[in-house]
Amino acid sequence: MERNFTLVILFAALIAVLGLVPPIPLTFGVPISAQSLGVMLAGAVLGSWRGAAAVLVVHGVVALGLPVLAGGRGGLGVFTSPTVGFLIGWLPAAFVTGLVVERMRSLRVGIAAGIGAVIGGIVVLYLCGTVGLMVVLDKGPFEALMLSLPFIPGDLIKAALAGWLTQTIARYRPGALLSRA
Amino acid sequence: MLSLALPGASWAHRLPVGVKLAGLAVVMVGAMQLRDPWVIALALVGLVGLYASLGRAGLAAGLRAARSLFWIVAVILLWHLVTDQARLGLTLGLRVFLMVGLANFVTLTTPLPELIALIEWLAQPLSRLGLSPRLPALSVALMVRFIPILQGRFGQLGLAWRARSRRRPGSRLLAPLSFSLLDDAEHLAEALRARGGLAPRKQGKD
């Protein structure tokens, strides 16, 4: 009980710390932040519910006005900005990533985590982000999706990293892999 | 790790947090209905006045938050210029500044302890589920406490890497960072158990 709690909290802290890593500009100029890697990892390592709980803690801290999002953003303002869908979408993103790892037990955990990160951390996340853009900007789904497409290559790299990291954790700290416990 | 809230005791700081949040919700719904760029621009002028009433530090903090929106608003404007809907683009761009500015105003004028007290009050039903109502506040405190620790660990790993190699570490430090995080979680859990764990306190034992 206490251990699950502290794991959730520390993954929430990891998501915040990854937001402080300077964004890496890709070759065509789109900066990617490592923050959603933390979301994928939380789901893949902690599993569906606990991964989503870690994201919920981050959301709470953001709403309290602490600058824990990439670029030092925070406060209630981010919940009304056009990119709110990508922030709220972290919840189902971590949940689905964890769900895939929990359900695909026949696969190696790293592979399952990579697949989960693509489905949860990219497909589900962009779905939420696009809906957010549609609501805030009164756009159709096509236009809204166009605004976010340039970020997908960076996210594919992050999904691969999440898979590799999960496999590494499974090897050296198997007890912490709550998603396959 | 500092809160974004401004120190001070302006009129807005003195308003109860519940009033501010309820007011924000009402104003937000209203702001979503605005379609005329001139009306929104007028509302923005009012918002700047609101920030100005907090003094120079208030204006500076508002500008800092607005600056982070610059790129997304630029993309929105560009998109609408290309698709020949300049007026709509202006409406949307201004509205983004208005909505974020309004919400941010509440964040700037509400000290962290007041918000934590609100959360503890909202969390009271948790005790019926057998959880401590202090859980949310404890989560926030622990997370905020561990951000500088993890950051420091990341910095140390970077130094150790540079002592061994000329190449950039890239993503290679993530694995050792994860291990140290998982080990910290074990130690922290032990410390929590030693202090009575997460179960709600027994009545009359405080």
Automatic annotation (TrEMBL), chain A:
Note whether Cytoplasm occurs among the keywords.
no
Q: Which UniProt keywords apply?
A: Cell membrane, Membrane, Transmembrane, Transmembrane helix, Transport
| Location of the protein in the cell | Cell membrane
Q: Name one Pfam family in it.
A: BioY
One Gene Ontology cellular component annotation held by this UniProt entry: plasma membrane
The record gives the membrane topology as:
Multi-pass membrane protein
Q: Name one GO molecular function term.
A: biotin transmembrane transporter activity
Residues that span the membrane, as ranges: 53-72, 84-101, 107-137
Q: Give the matching InterPro entries.
A: BioY (IPR003784)
PANTHER family per record: BIOTIN TRANSPORTER BIOY (PTHR34295), BIOTIN TRANSPORTER BIOY-RELATED (PTHR34295:SF4)
Q: Which family does it belong to?
A: Belongs to the BioY family.
Name the chain's protein: Biotin transporter
From TrEMBL, chain B:
Membrane topology classification = Multi-pass membrane protein
Q: State which residue ranges cross the membrane.
A: 38-59, 65-82, 94-119
Q: List where in the cell it is found.
A: Membrane
- Entries under Pfam families matching the protein: CbiQ
Q: Which UniProt keywords apply?
A: Membrane, Transmembrane, Transmembrane helix
Q: Does the keyword Transmembrane apply?
A: yes
Return the InterPro entries for the record. Answer: ABC/ECF_trnsptr_transmembrane
Cellular component (GO) terms are:
plasma membrane
Does the record's keyword annotation contain Transcription?
A: no
Family designation: Belongs to the CbiQ family.
The protein depicted here goes by the name: ABC transporter permease
- What's the source species for this entry? Pseudothioclava arenosa
